[in-house]
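Researcher: Good morning. I'm working through a list of sequences from a screen, and I'd like to move beyond sequence-only analysis. For each chain I'm collecting a predicted structure so we can compare shapes side by side. This is the next one on the list. No need for commentary yet; just the structure.
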Amino acid sequence: MEKSILATLLLATCINVSASEYVQISPYFETKIAPKPQQLDPLKSVIRVQFPAVSVISVKDAIEYVLDGTGYSIVSEQYWTEEMRIILEQKIAHTQRDLKDTPLKITDAIELVLGEPFIVISDPLRRKVSFVLKDEFRGLVDE
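Model: Good morning. Structure tokens for this chain:
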């Protein structure tokens, strides 16, 4: 008997919540029942970052630093293209070290340290990040 009453109350609560899509969090406020965009896609999280000078030296270090905690990582080295290898081994620019006053989505922060020649690509199934060289910069790889 207790189980059926508890199940009925639980079902009534669920029906009431799903019908309104809002839940009262205080006497004066309601909030929508929905995940935040950064919960659905961690790469959309907004960050402010200042890269530590001791541990973040290369572009690869900077990307790994901003990806830390997102569940994402750079694709395995076996899948790196020549242009990926070139940029990931470069030192991060001094002007890109302190972004604490510049709120950025994680993908924007990655694009910033990669520079204009690259487009960030993410694989949400495998939670991997990669990037490709824009067509207008392809001639620079062979030089």
